[in-house]
Design a protein that fits this description.
single chain, alpha+beta, 5 strands
């Protein structure tokens, strides 16, 4: 089991509550960067530590390179949140979130589509393969 899995699982309810609050205040139809910024502020109001960019070490066949990775919100170092404002979540969106989770070694990810009339219908929870075992 991933050492941060239990902490991450416990935080998802709070993060979803913050997303609901942002959606309640702003509604659907805005651009992703607005939802991302508001979500960062709302999570801060809930006393959660958040990052939205980080340099990561990329390793490939013995080669390494540090690369700035632009992701939406990393909460408490253990939940990666990807904010979307799209008509429909595509498999590519989930694949991108999983790739970021692997690079950052984050056990849980939340894909939140703020374009939905009811934001809870646009939330997907992803678990890094093997993180919950």
């Amino acid at each position: 089991m991933h050492p941060l899995f239990n902490k991450a699982s416990g935080l998802t309810e709070t993060i979803i509550g913050a997303a609901i609050e942002v959606h309640r205040d702003k509604g659907p139809g805005l651009i992703e960067s607005i939802y991302e910024w508001c979500l960062l502020k709302e999570l801060g109001l809930r006393n959660l530590g958040c990052l939205n960019q980080k340099a990561v070490l990329i390793e490939y066949k013995g080669f390494t390179r540090e690369e700035p990775l632009r992701f939406d919100v990393l909460v408490e170092g253990c939940v990666l949140v990807e904010a979307k404002a799209v008509e429909k979540i595509l498999p590519l969106h989930k694949a991108q979130l999983l790739s970021y989770m692997k690079l950052l070694n984050v056990p849980v990810g939340l894909l939140i589509n703020f374009h939905e009339l009811k934001v809870t219908e646009g939330i997907s929870r992803l678990i890094l393969p093997g993180a919950n075992q």
